Amino acid sequence: MEADRESQATADILIVDDTPANLQFLAALLKTRGYKTRAALNGELALQAIRNHPPDLILLDVHMPDIDGIEICKRIKTDPAYSDIPIIFVSGEHETHNKIKAFSSGGVDYITRPFQIDEVFARVSTHLDLRNQRVQLRNTMKRMQELETLRDNLVHMLIHDLRNPLWAIESSLELIKTFEAASVSPKIATCLAETQTYTGNMIEMINSILDVNKMESGHLKLDLTNCDLVDLCKQVIRSMEPMRHSRSLTMNTAASPVHAVIDKGLIRRLLINLISNAFRATREASGKITLNFHCANNFIRINVADNGRPIPVEEHPKIFEKYAQANSVLSGEGRYLPGLGLPFCKLVAEAHGGRVGIQTMPGSVNIFWVELPVTGPLPGLA
Q1: What is the pLDDT of residues 29-55, one digit of tens each?
Q2: Of 217, 251, 273, which residue constitutes the final position of a domain?
Q3: Does residue 347 contact residue 269 with C-beta atoms inside 8 Å?
């Protein structure tokens, strides 16, 4: 509070009036409170004074011979460099239509003559305080954006550097699988296969994080090809067999191909993320995940349904947000942490001209879905 009062006392106020007596009176009045004042006898001089040194507040006469106060205010408010300067109109007229014109042009207040001295001080002080608060808020937001950028750059650098050791681990596991498969026990072979799967998943996660950053910054280009989505889903389901354990993972769809022009690698990872999310939401012994297709208006919808505990409807808008934490009881404890997998899905779908969403159906079923535009016929799909 003390700092605010001090900043107000040193505030620079520009007084614009074509009557010297009015200028002298307001300047003397404001100086008694420690304000710095400048004077301009017409609109051109006022605009030049603002360009030379923007004031903290302007007291502006409504009626002047060359450019009236309304026009001056409009010019100031259309210039981004000066539009945040508060302008208080000063006039001897009390008519409502004049006040409406003043406020419509961008003024923040309207003082009438003869002046009530305490009212002048109160209005000037209030608008200077509001301006200081806006400036502080803008500076705080700028600093927060700088810190967020610094954090994102640091995370990006660390994540990028993690790929090299993970690739080395994946290569070593592949060498063991190729040259030592006959010499290890079935139990060890199973452990190696699971480790290889999880290592691949970690690399996928890292790639997703890097791609989220690229998509948000507009630097990721899609590698578009014509692809059969039905066949792609089958490939993804086969690749995720080691992760499902005793869960059921099936696909209900017609045998006919469904063609779409997509970035096959990104859509494949999108499907892996949706199925992995369903794995986390369900128990191994009783988990049931089902993929199915629906079509409408040249869009194909791929549903990934699970029988995990339902995600509350009020959490649905947050579930695809970056770093969001959704209140859920999917695991029977704490919070459900979707990480960057679902935000990645959202960005990928939107990059293809599609969208993603979630439904919670009666009978404790969560359905995560993605809609993509298609290029081929969809026979047999409903």
Answers
A1: 999 999 999 999 999 999 999 999 999
A2: 217
A3: no
